[in-house]
Amino acid sequence: MIDQLYCDEILDLARNSPHRGDLNHPDLLACLSNPLCGDELTIALKLAPPENPDDTDPDHRRIEAFRFVGHGCAISQAAVELLAEHLEGRTLAEARAFSERDLLDLLGLPLTPARLKCGLLGLRALKRALDAEARDRGRPF
Amino acid sequence: MRWDPNREGRDVIMASDGDKNRTVGNAPVGSARQERRGFDSRAMRAAFPALHREVHPGKPLVYLDSAATAPKPQAVLDAVRRYDAEFPANVHRGIHTLAEEATEAYEAARATVAAWLGSTDPLGDASRVVFVKNATEALNLVALGWAGSRLEKGDEVVLTVAEHHANLVPWRMLAERRGVTLRYADLDAEGRLTFEAVEAVVSERTRVLAVTGLSNILGTSLPVDRLVALGRSVGAAVVVDLAQAAGRLPAPVNGGWLEADFLAFSGHKLGGPTGVGVLVGRPERLEETEPILGGGGMIARVDLDAVTWTEPPHKFEAGTPPIAQAIGLAAAIDFLDQFDRVAIAAHEQRLAQRAARELAALDGVRLVGAGADRVERHGIVSFVCDAVHPHDLAQWADADGVAIRAGHHCGQPLHRRLGLTASARASFGPYNDDADVDCLIATVRSALARFGRHRATVAVGSHRIGTPR
Hints:
Chain A has about 140 residues and is α+β, with helices and mostly antiparallel strands.
């Protein structure tokens, strides 16, 4: 079980994270911490321009860049890297529909309840950003 | 009939008023306790059922998380079971035999606690012992019930940066409510918590000095007697969070700890049940303290338009108290009291010191707080591995059966002060031995080997991304 949890793929994802980094002028931004360990994660999304200039629904726009900064355990870092890889190029609507179950399936790890918080930290930060965006609807983008 | 809170076969005289030959637990009060059993960690371990389980197939438990909670000796399990099986009655309510036995056992537990804290007159001091839920509730009771109605804007409360959240958040809440200022004693250049640092922030504006007796992260202690003298010199109340110290340091036999205005600790860290904690106060301070819970058992008289409270300690124990738990705590103290506390403390200190030395010698491991050469590490060593996040390390260690703590250990400010968000912590009890240190070092080594080629996943880039809209 422990070898599965800390397999090469996970350690590589956590170590070599192409999506780790800053993003200037992001369209969506959220920060979340894990109260258990104090780890903090900030995610930032840049959206592509609407494919159809007449379409004003931001949910139809694609995620052009998904970046994160912060620090955390191998599980949280691998999970957010995987999330970024998976969602880049997809629409905001698809990101909204992406569930915790989906991420856990993608990860395929045997997470104990305490480690679920680590695995889901990035996704919960993303949901926070998406919720804030939905609340802000009506404001100019 | 007299209820015997101790194991069968022990000759125990229960104390009663006017009894000149006063005895509490197994030992004569006020005289040197004799005939303590020689201390042997292996024999000690045999008394703790939980220490004999496997956590994974073929992986016996190596328990190194006593600073979070201690396992329970069989004597505690027996005492709790005995209450539940033989006299499961409410206290101070009934006239029947069961109620009297329960009341006697519950009240006797106060004197046992007082004796454990070094009282020279445990029966006399029993009324200073208030049973609450845990150390956190005890500290909240002080911050709300005593300081809450006395401190004003401009008054200062002195804490240290190493306080457990239990002794920080209640004061922060008070600060928000009353405009009180909090001052923090800082670590010294070596990462130690010193009395001098506390002294440096105390002034004539200090009304409360609320500090830890032993840091749950650094493992270093502060001298209670000097804190008391310091508080007195400026007229400040001295509150000591004894959550770690109550189990790790032998109380001075002259009752020095009890000179503090308030002491707080939890029963479960001594091997008692969860659900009982202790607040000990000087009699005049308890008189001044307002109850924070109202209900049955804490009143002298209730009318529809007025209530008079009863005397301490019952004034603070509204509702049915943790009876089984208080009896279990007394059993834990009686169990520990069979052994030489100085020897236990030295044993825990030696194991932590050895662990600190060997951890510090590993490439990529850093100790939290003072270096490995410091000796005042009372059974606790916290550390970080550059290549392995504490959560990953704890999970890795668990697979080897080794239980360590990972996280901020309810001490976020201290971690931030040290530029960390989390650490791993190994803490030792009397039942641990050198083989446990070997297991700790072995599992840390193997984690370093596994994670080593993957560098740390610590902060990269700035913490601020772009410009928020």
